[in-house]
Amino acid sequence: MPACNTCQDLNLRPRGHDAKFPAQLEVEIPGLLAAAEGGCQACRVLRDGVVGHTSSFEHVKSLRLNSVWPELPLVVFVHKEDGTTEYLELYSHADEPTPWPIIGAGRDVSVDSSSKECLKLAENWLLDCAMNHPKCRPVYESPLPTRVIHVGSKDQEPYLYESKGEKRKYAALSHCWGPKEIEPITTEQTTLEKRKKGIPFASLSKNFQDAVMIARRLFIDYLWIDSLCIIQDSTPDWEREASQMGTVYSNAIITIAADGSPDSHGGCFVAGEGRNAVSSRALCSSLNGNEGHIYVRPQGIRRNVNELAHTNRNLGRSKLSTRAWVLQERTLAPRTLSFTAEEMTWECATSLRCECQVAPEKASAHTFKQRYVRHGPVEDYSHMIGRGFSNSLEDSEGWKRRQREIEAGAPVLRLKWQNVVEEFTRRELTRPSDRLPAILGLASAMGRATSDLFTTNEYFFGLWRRDLVKGLLWQSIEFDGSEGRSSISRRPDKWLAPTWSWASVTGQVGWRLEVKDGDMTEPDKTGQKIRKSCQIATSGSERKGELTVLGKLTPVRLVDTKNDTATKQADGSAATVFLFASEKAADSGYRPYDKLEPDVKGNGYELTHEEKYFFLLLATVGLFGQWEGRPFGLVLRRKMGEERLFQRVGFVRGMHSKTKDWAEVGEYRALVLV
Question: Contact 333/318 with Cβ under 8 angstroms?
Fold first, then answer.
């Protein structure tokens, strides 16, 4: 029996770690105050800790103790009479006596992340990962990128170094450039030789200065920064180096993320009100008589999966986490050390760490990176050597390719590609022309993971040959209410990609099919025919991106346009719904019709009732046979002046007619999508 019935002696899990979590206990204020006056040490700690933040219990109704997990701080819900709740956490210091195990160890968050304690903590995290994380990529020397910054020392200025293929340890910086008028220092053709002789530390933006200091503190001699290591006014150099960014971030032993800075001048080391650095303490005495302190601060939580830092403020997503280029930087990096506005954090394949908590958290499916990475090993064919396959394997181009990739440290990741694209397209790009280059690193890693020794999973303008049918069924997402952000879809006048690719439009896209992969089938093996006839030209200005398809095609026209009050546009007005119908009736006289989701939102949706369109049937979903299911496909138009070339204008998820209705009025034919 507990000595105190009010607080249960802060022993909420009498069965040890097997108890259910979270473990909770309601504490009434009159009982708490009486027990504290009566000599209960635990109740006294709760009383003094809460009073340190609320001044008194005058308007406090009750407390709820919430132990999320062993070794973590104890969370206290302070329920007030006006119906509001304040959230506090009680924690101890690891080097002080811990009176009650339920109050786990925590750290005080630094007021400024440039402190010696903060940088020492970062050094310890890197060392622990290198020594004790078998699942993480080893900390070994990798081929240096084409150019890197030698970080120098107190007595030597940094300088730009052009590598010769040697292997060294290096770090990479992930940062926001900011508006053009305050862009960071860059390397151009006229300054290349000057940068190689030296870069005055004082000439670097604050982000770069801090990153150099962090690299020095971690005993890393080389640092990759995009604006300095890529010749910004050389198109050939930019294209070549941009295509290697995936490998650059994958081979870096650590990526330093200037997460708390909206531009190049805010710095990695952030200080300010956003940091949960203020705490109070309450004197306590454990049951064996040892004295110590319990520390109390507002509870910090992670606002979303894109953020690892704990905060007690609703600051929204950091500027860095809204940038499209950063998605591949963070996903491919084996380790990321983030300097956020709230606290310093760490992410690797094994654990998540932060300043405020001592106990590491396991990397889980709820975290940013794990949302996009499929679990399971990438194929390893080395076991086949010596079993009769030696000659055929070692002589194959696939084997040679895989060996070259391994030697070069090329990243290999199985990705949930549709999830990746949806997150990528909701992020911001300064230049729409970067839509494909900014995801190329992830695509290269995905290609290596989904190709075997004998065949390659080809990548075509953001889609994959092996998943081409589903890949074609993307749709523009006009408004995503999860964060109150609008997404406007346009097809720029300047060509970005063929119209059948999601990269041809701006704004967010996704695969809102509302069906499981296993429920979708391809009528008459449509997908197989498409993949076999898939001939995509990737060069030549006139034939670039031509996709040859064999499928059921039906001439259609727009028949009705109406306002849908249940679906809102970004400005809050009712969305426009387009219905289309077959020009040809079935034998029964029925003329199938359905709803069109336009690729372009606004600007008249680039659709007219006078123009002739075509419905291309690609897939069906249904429980009673493929022809009884719902049709999925694309609406096309002829390219102006071209009889054989078709352009995509929208996506169809059948709502009104069945697959068999469209199959009856459609005709198989070969066509070319551009």
Answer: no
Output phi, psi for 283, to 5 deg: -70, 135
Minimum mean pLDDT range among 174-178, 188-192, 565-569 = 565-569
Question: With contact defined as beta carbons under 8 Å apart, do 211 and 268 qualify?
Answer: yes
Cα–Cα distances in Å, from 217 out to 121, 210, 423?
A: 11, 10, 34
> Which residues lie below 8 Å from residue 309, measured CB to CB, with a gap of 6+?
259, 300, 302, 338, 340, 341, 342, 343, 345, 354
Q: What is the model's pLDDT at position 381?
A: 35
CA 503: distance to chain centroid?
Answer: 18
**SS3 sequence of 220-281:** CCEEECHHHHCECCCHHHHHHHHCCHHHHHHHCCEEEECCCCCCCCCCCCCECCCCCCCCEE
What lies within 8 Å, CB to CB, of 218 at 6+ separation is 122, 123, 126, 171, 254
**Per-residue model confidence as pLDDT tens digits over 36-72:** 999 898 899 899 988 888 778 888 999 999 887 777 8
For residues 559 and 211, the model is more confident at 211
CA atoms 410, 411, 414, 416: torsion sign:
negative
Write the DSSP string, 485-539: EE------SS--S-TTSGGGS-S-EE----S-GGGEE-GGGHHHHHHHH--B--S
Q: Is 64 exposed, middle or buried (0-12, 13-18, 19+ CB in 10 A)?
A: middle
Among 26, 29, 35, which residue's Cα sits nearest to residue 4? Answer: 35
What is the rounded CA–CA span in Å between residue 259 and residue 268?
Answer: 7
Lowest mean pLDDT among 23-32, 227-236, 268-277, 393-402: 393-402
Residue 545 CB coordination number (10 Å): 22
Tell me the mean pLDDT in the region 395-399. Answer: 51
CB count within 10 Å of CB 569 equals 16
Q: Are the beta carbons of 347 and 364 closer than 8 angstroms?
A: no
- CA distances 264 to 94, 141, 257, 345, Å, are 36, 28, 12, 20
CA distance 577 to 565: 10
Query: Inter-axis angle of helices 116-132 and 206-217, to 10 degrees?
Result: 60
Contact indicator for 351, 361 with CB cutoff of 8 Å: yes
More confident residue, 404 or 434: 434
d(CA 211, CA 234): 25
CA dihedral 99, 104, 108, 114 (to 10 degrees): 140
Percentage of the chain lying above the pLDDT 70 cut? 78
Torsion angles phi and psi, residue 363, rounded to 5: -65, 130
pLDDT at position 365 over 50: no
Q: How far is CA 640 from CA 163, 558, 583, 674, in A?
A: 50, 18, 21, 12
Residue 154 pLDDT: 87
DSSP state of 436: T
**For range 5-30, the mean pLDDT:** 75
End-to-end Cα, the chain, rounded Å: 76
Report the alpha-carbon angle 434-436-438, nearest 5.
60
For residue 46, give the 3-state DSSP assignment: helix
pTM confidence score:
0.84
In angstroms, rounded to a whole number, what is the distance separating the alpha carbons of residues 22 and 251?
A: 39
Read off the tokens for 232. Answer: 């910004």
